[in-house]
Amino acid sequence: MADDTTIAVNRRARYDYDIVDTVEAGLVLTGTEVKSLRAGKASLAQAFAMVRDGQAWLVQAHIPEYAFGNRANHDPTRRRKLLLHKRQIAELAAFTQEQGRTLVPMRLYWRDGRAKVLLGLARGKAQHDKRAAIAERDAERQMRRALRDRERAG
Asked: What's the burial of 80, exposed, middle or buried (CB within 10 Å: 0-12/13-18/19+)?
């Protein structure tokens, strides 16, 4: 089964942070969480990742309760363990020790039937950096529009 289906995307990640590198990690999930994800329901809007006691965790990712679950349903915002090699966890821990650096979940998806999360090793952007990114995007859009209009006219 070679599917690579996106479940959820953190659209603000690239806007709020300067992504230095990315790492793919597996997730430890309960049965009702898997069923809820199969239904395509999840949110990474408030989520972040952290390293604590030599283990990586995904915090505040919202996977809603499974609609047909029973009283053994999961807590929607519980901490979920990330599956990474020890060396990768050590590198992430070292990265986050510096001021202004964090781990941001960018995308939650299925790969070969297993839930994966793409973590961005990120540096926080200042407000003026965000404004510069918006101005750059607008200039790029205007340039493409002018080129397109020129192609149509000529």
From this structure: buried
- Cα separation of 104 and 53, whole Å? 19
Compute the chain's Rg from CA coordinates: 19
Q: Mean of the pLDDT values across residues 120-134?
A: 83
Tokens of 88: 């990768």
Residues in CB range of 60: below 8 A, 6 or more apart: 46, 47, 48, 77
The two beta strands, 80-83 and 55-59, are antiparallel
Average confidence (pLDDT) over 110-118? 93
Whether residue 47 contacts residue 61, with contact meaning beta carbons closer than 8 Å, is answered with yes
Q: Residue 59: its pLDDT value, please?
A: 95
Q: Which of 127, 154, 140, 132 has its CA nearest to residue 16?
A: 127
Tokens of residue 120, six digits: 């961005």
Query: What is the mean pLDDT of the segment spanning 75-81?
Result: 90
Q: What angle do CA 94, 95, 97 make, to 5 degrees?
A: 65
